[in-house]
Amino acid sequence: MTSTVYRFYDNLTRKKTYATDELHVSELKRCLTVFDLTILGIGSTLGTGTYILTGQVAHETAGPSVILSFLIAAIASVLAGLCYAEFGARAPRAGSAYTYTYVSVGEIMAFIIGWNMILEYVIGAASTSRALSGYFDSLIGFQMKTFFIKYLPLHAGTFAEYADLFAMSLCLLVTVLLVIGIKESALLNNVFTGINLIVIAIVVIAGLTKAHLHNWDISPAEIKNITNTTETIGSGGFFPFGIEGTLAGAATCFYAFVGFDLVATTGEETKNPQRAIPMSICFTLLVCSIVYCSVSIVITLMVPYYLINPDAVLPEAFQYVNLSALKYVVGVGALTGIFTSLLGTLLPLPRVLYAIASDGLIFRFIAWIHPRLQTPMIATILGGIVSAIMALIFDLKKLVEMMSIGTLLAYSLVSISVLFLRYQPVDDPLLPNDELASLSVYRQLFKPSGRRPTFSSAKLTKYLITCLTINGCILCAIQIFAGHHIANKNPTAIIVLIIFLITEILFIIAIAAQPKNQKSIYFQTPCVPYVPILSILINTYLILKLSPATWIRFGVWMFLGFLIYGFYGFWHSSQRFINDTQRLLSGSTSSFNDS
Question: Which positions, given as ranges, span the membrane (predicted)?
Fold first, then answer.
């Protein structure tokens, strides 16, 4: 019985391995440069964040402090991006966080991440096409909406108000472009992203000429005189909704940066990926952080935060300051920016499907590569059709609510994976001389001997990382669900918080004391273990802030995924066949030696 349970656990946690010469071998066409990857990352990240999210957060959540919200979100994204960049240098393969988790944590966790990445990209593509459809419709006086409500209404409360054929068509159009080839898609993306960046530069320069510092310091008396609105408009000043509003805005703004992981999914289509992927991720996050903060500064200086139109922030802002001629310039930038976001969301989806199907965890036929185009055709078409159906029947708000948990889980597990790999032995982990075996628990935790990791030190570090993650979840939960008790100086709540905080600090000290491997790669996450740990804690906090409805949808999606894995993936895993073959060869060798 025990051996059966151990074998089952061993199968669930089997890890994917690559020989050094396999890392650069791919059926996909390697044609992307650092420039292509960076523009792809910028194009997929900018778009809905600039033209929609900025206005919503400024108007409803943070006021002028939306600038700090974006800055906090940028820091959180950079922490995750540094971990992605290291894995891009270690394992430049298609699949992004799925592949990274497979090589470091194990198969079952890799499948969970990959399955949620599929959901993230499908919903991201559907929501972006809905946003593009809505923005275009606003420029033509909402004629499409009027027509669709009249002739294609959806009366079920679960779905949108009407079937959006235009949004569905956009998904299918981008799918056709991706089938033709990634280089051609990247060229179109480069042109559209260039137009978008030019428009943003015009917006910032023109907006600064109409800036008024008074809009960052609106007095409470001025707020009290506003009687023509039923909305909650805060108390004025730079923090009209308090620090809590700024932090809540940061949680929302965080999703404006999620497009950077597109760069990591193209590892098998990139020239010199071990150099290109880390550089592109860093450039993408730097440019996007500057753009988001610049647009936020301009908007909140041009218009009082309570007058910002969350649905059409830039056109209405220029109308307010009598620069209405710029409305059409902004419209061109918005359409090209949101279109490149759609392209950047649909592009990684087939790469993740291809990676998972190639490993046998979902149906293998999905991984078929077109021999001439060298693109994952079936995965591209399948992903595009599912995204198009979602865009047809769901509205933007419901779609956005469903996409967050997969992203945050992926970021967390990539950070955990960096920690696991950094503390593993470089060579065979089953070293004959394990200097930690005879040491006391205290010495093992805080004063380990030796400068290089061993099997025992790596095992101990994994336990410490696991305990740190669990303790961090509890710590974040206390802060979220008992925050009002702590604010009211409830002694029990404060004592419990301090206990878990001290425990977390001890775990961090113990992990930092363990020996790290010194294997040199092109890019390494700096300040390990502190950067990955901070990323884990931030992501955990944001995950626990999600609504119960999101967790219910996550549960339904995961139930479907576990059915596929249990009845197909577990038995058809390529790594299972490799491990079984190695066991058979090992057994044959042992029998030969015995005889």
Answer: 34-54, 66-85, 97-115, 162-182, 188-208, 281-308, 328-347, 377-396, 403-423, 463-482, 494-515, 521-544, 551-571
> Which has the closest alpha carbon to 104: 87, 118, 89, 80?
87
Provide the residue ranges of all domains of the chain, joining segments of one domain with +.
Answer: 37-221+232-419, 423-546
Where do the H-state alpha helices sit in 91-219? 97-104, 107-139, 143-151, 165-180, 182-208
Burial label, 512 (beta-carbon count in 10 A; 0-12, 13-18, 19+): middle
Run means of pLDDT, 10 residues per run, the chain, 595 residues: 73 75 60 82 81 84 91 87 80 73 84 86 85 81 87 77 90 88 76 88 90 88 67 81 85 78 74 82 90 92 88 81 82 84 84 89 90 85 92 74 72 86 66 43 59 80 91 90 83 91 94 83 85 90 78 85 93 86 66 42
N residues, the chain: 595
CA distance to 82, 99, 179, 471, 472, per residue, from 499 (Å): 30, 36, 55, 10, 12
**Taking a C-beta distance cutoff of 8 angstroms, is the pair 133, 124 a contact?**
no
Going by C-alpha positions, the residue among 179, 236, 205, 219 that lies closest to residue 64 is 236
Give the separation between CA 100 and CA 106, rounded to whole angstroms. 9
Q: Can you state the percent helix, strand and coil of the chain, rounding each to 5?
A: 75, 0, 25
User: Is pTM beyond 0.90 here?
Assistant: no
Residue 579 CB-half CA count within 13 A? 17
CATH of 37-221+232-419, one of 1.10.3210.10, 2.60.40.10, 1.10.10.10, 1.20.1740.10: 1.20.1740.10
Q: Which of 363, 448, 348 is nearest to 95 (CA)?
A: 348
User: How far is the C-alpha of 441 from the C-alpha of 458, rounded, in Å?
Assistant: 15
Amino acid letter, residue 469: T
Residue 341 DSSP code:
H
Between the alpha carbon of residue 291 and those of residues 40, 278, 286, 298, 481, the distances in Å are: 16, 20, 9, 11, 34
Q: How far separated are the first and last CA of the chain, in Å rounded? A: 30
Q: What are phi and psi of 13, to 5 degrees?
A: -105, 15
Q: Alpha carbon of 355 to those of 100, 366, 557, 561: distances in Å?
A: 11, 9, 19, 16
Burial class for 404, CB neighbours closer than 10 Å (0-12, 13-18, 19+): buried
In one-letter notation, the amino acid at residue 561 is: G
